[in-house]
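so my prof wants the structure for this chain in the tokens format not the other one, which i didnt know existed until like an hour ago. anyway here's the sequence
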Amino acid sequence: MAADRCVFIGVPVQAGASQAGCVMGPDALRTAGICDAVAALDYEVSDRGNLSAKPVAVSEHPNPHLHDLQEISGWIGALAQASYSSAQDAIPVFMGGDHSLSAGSIAGVAKAAAQAEAPLFVLWLDAHPDFHTLETTESGNLHGTPLAYLTGEAGFEGYYPPLEVAVEPENVCLIGLRSVDRDEGKKLLERRFELYDMRAVDEFGIVTLVRRFIDRVTAAGGWLHVSLDVDFLDPQVAPAVGTTVPGGATVREAHLIMEMLHESGCVRSLDLVELNPFLDERGRTAKLLVDLTCSLFGKRILDRQTRSY
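here's what i got, hopefully its the right format
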């Protein structure tokens, strides 16, 4: 990894989703022992508690489906500031909270990377691309918009905070896709994102796809932000998410990705999003996210013990 300091920041936002429960995500991860587990891997760990945000006054949007726009705008601004300050000398881990938080966490890391004169790359592990704009979302759930905002799509001006540093679409790799709206898919292809659905994972194997992207990041001397949505995983192994889509990644595939990312040495920040403890089974999803985070920070198979549920 790029630093030996790790900062945990709780982001109890659930206004971007349609189902309540993500507000409990950060504390569920703490209860599952995430801070101590990473500290045991010889990182200097600090927990900065849960971030808070105040709604920001914005104009009424013509899309009648949107909800909680003012609250999400406030979260993005607060997160971008916290992310920028923490990413300069530590690896921030943002414990969510729904996926709208990535609009702020990545915006701040992008600013820090630009200041360090390094290109920012993003690995988006998710069943959904979250590439809707405020105009195109039909559900009105703003956790479906962060990637469009971060890569400079039009229509966010005056509603989300001004984006200081946009992420280049070609620097974003999406793996695990299996629920993509037709218009989203068309725009993603036009913008030249690196896209791998679960068929690609089945055809080529996760190692080939991840290594291809890591090689690009390391060749460019880039910073890598990893955004892990619970629904990237198959719901049979990670049920605690309100947007389950069958056919997701296995536990072993997810661990392999994290192990490869650790070995690359280019990861600078991490999102853990969409954990809804209300939907979990005896904390199994929270515990799995802790285990995956440990793999990202260097825990090996030989270090693991059998877990009893």
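also thought this was worth mentioning. The beta strands are 5-11, 44-50, 91-96, 120-125, 172-177, 194-197, 223-229, 267-273.
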